[in-house]
Amino acid sequence: MKGILIGAMHKRGSFVPEGEEKAREYNNIVLILQKPIELVSTPERSVQGVGYTTVEAKTPYENFNNVFGEAVKSLKDLEKYIGTEVSYFFNDKGKLDSVLL
Question: pTM for the full model?
C-alpha cells in the first residue's frame, strides 16, 4: 500500500482489558499515513466519498529496525520523511511488517 507519512509516535504503557485483572504492557511504534479514500460498491455495502483518510499502522517497538531497515535507527530519523510517500506492508496478523521510504 502507498500513503503519505504524516506522523509517527512511540506509545508505551499498560492497560487492563475488560473482564481481566492483570495489566498488559504495550510498547509500539505507530505511523499515521494519509491515503486516498477507497470507494466500495457491492450489493451489501456502498461507500461514497472524496479526498483522503488516515490509517494508523503499528508494530512492536522491538521490530523497529526490521520494519525500516538501515535507513532509520530511531523515531527522530523519521522526521525527514514526514510529508513523503512511502510504501507500507502488513503481516498476516495485521501488524506493520515493512516500510519502504
Answer: 0.84
